[in-house]
Write a structure and sequence with these properties.
about 240 residues; alpha/beta; Spore Coat Polysaccharide Biosynthesis Protein SpsA, Chain A; 7-stranded mixed beta sheet; two-stranded parallel sheet; 9 helices; about 20% strand
Length: about 240
């Protein structure tokens, strides 16, 4: 990576009704990775998350806020954040959940990995990775979904549905973001698959995924099963 812009990093943090989490998680992110900027992407949360994020941004120039008109899904929020990052010349773009299920302490590991790889994935299913506070049914559903997608797509990635990632800007530019089809958990599968099809180097680093501290989980069996169905659409598209 070369040039000042190539070294700048932005973390995209989608929120919807995360008022209890947005302050603590942005504080933890900036403590773990002081050189990273944070973009809170709020989908007009009725609990006032967006307004609280504005107040945080007014106190710290590393925090920015992108307000969207309504809830359109995780994938659309990330696409808006990625476009915002590329327009402003960031060389590295990260994504993670706002509920502490992705621990900010792993951010330096993801950033370090980007020195050698084009896309770094925080993975639950490589040695050293794992999950905490999950029941057996959820563990089987998540691991089985990733294995299914891996087999259908014919890729070596073990954690295709995870949302803790670090992209080099070249990856986001090459995969043609406006044509991304999926949202939710299938969105994560599609972006990784597109990066692989474009010949980018993708590596996985171990993380431990912990169930959210406060608030209600947005993950459901329906969402995961929908992602499993969309794997065939991703496979048939090819993205050559």
């Amino acid at each position: 990576m070369t040039g000042t812009g190539e070294r700048r990093a932005l973390l995209c943090l989608p929120t919807y009704n995360e008022r209890e989490n947005v302050g603590p998680v942005t504080e933890a992110i900036l403590a773990a990775a002081p050189g990273v900027d944070v973009l809170v992407i709020d989908d007009d949360s009725p609990d006032g998350t967006g307004q609280l994020a504005d107040a945080l941004a007014a106190r710290d120039r590393r925090i920015h806020v992108l307000h969207r008109a309504g809830k359109e899904g995780l994938g659309k929020a990330y696409l808006a954040g990625f476009a915002w990052a590329l327009e402003r010349g960031y060389g590295l773009v990260l994504e993670m959940d706002a509920d502490f299920s992705h621990d900010p302490r792993y951010l330096p590991t993801l950033l370090a990995g980007a020195a050698q790889a084009d896309l770094v994935l925080g993975s639950r299913y490589v040695p050293g990775g794992g999950t905490e506070n999950w029941g057996l049914a959820r563990r089987l559903l998540s691991r089985g979904g990733s294995l299914y997608a891996r087999l259908i797509l014919g890729v070596p990635i073990r954690d295709l549905t995870g949302g803790f990632k670090c992209f080099r800007r070249e990856v986001l530019e090459a995969i043609d973001l406006p044509t991304v089809q999926c949202s939710g958990y299938a969105f994560q599968i599609e972006l990784t698959y597109r990066a692989l099809r474009k010949g980018f180097r993708v590596v996985e680093v171990p993380i431990v995924f912990v169930d959210r501290r406060v608030g209600q989980s947005k993950m459901s069996r329906r969402i995961v099963l929908e992602a499993v169905r969309k794997v065939w659409s991703i496979r048939l598209s090819g993205f050559r």
